[in-house]
Amino acid sequence: SAGTPDMERPPQTATHSPWRFCVAPMLDWTDRHCRYFLRLLSRRARLYSEMITASALLRGATRRWLAHHPAEHPLALQLGGGEAAALACAARLAADAGFDEINLNVGCPSDRVHAGRFGACLMAEPERVAESVAAMRAAVRVPVTVKTRLGIDHHDSYEFLHRFVSTVAEAGCTTFIIHARKAWLRGLSPRENRSVPPLDYARVYRLKQDFPQLTIVINGGITTLEQSAAHLPRVDGVMLGRAVYHDPYLLAAVDRSLFGDPTPAPSRHEVVARLQPYVATQLARGTPLQAISRHLLGLFQGQPGARAWRRHLSEQAHRQGADGRVLLDAARQVRRRG
Fold it and tell me: Measured between alpha carbons, how far is residue 96 from residues 73, 99, 147 in Å?
């Protein structure tokens, strides 16, 4: 099955985590290898898959998109789509594969997504989103959540956001992840939509005040744990994306600083060592080392020798026969420069 355990022993992990700290779904980045690596750094952060369209799962690509290691939990699958019946079938496949949460993308502003009538454009159709949420909730027992924006185009008033959340909440959605920017569906690229529309954290705080019964997670422009902690008195959770991907070791402080977990964090070198059994298993299955190592480039970000680490991985991981020794050799170069 898609969730079949790998042969190596999984690291200890929490079986459940509140939405207090989440790593965002990132297309082409938060695949299963990335998530396994991130889980070595934090036992409690909630991890999300990259967005997967319901149609991709219904076409039979379940092994590719639903495979994951048991150590990745708590783990959510993000779905893209706008048809209730298809989303319900896809949600059932994901829940059967063992995912802990199904998240509906109502925030992606790309032209391709917009053309398919899903993503951020669905904010203009809250009843349609509510219908999809209701269908998915009827199909699975795990939570169905929604990730969205403050608004779209000129539909950016607080009243517009309030109506959207109220309508979808009536269908049974109790958790909303809010990217604290609106999206421009015309004129801005997805990359520009992550930075050009201004942030409005106060609007997310107000949403939590108006819907105290809902779980509200804030996303957008948050890059440090200090910033994360500053938001938590006002909302139920924070979500970081690219900041974690480019400097993944910041996750090593999450469990202690945000959850009060006294378990010592692993060092960067310990993480490299703990990856070895996973790498060996994946290579035996035909996975190229580069598919794993590409997610590790930022592990030594800001440390002496970080450039040597990145250079060694970039030059050696793609070579034929490359294995876990490439990671160990790169780590040794860091030690020599430390």
Answer: 14, 7, 22
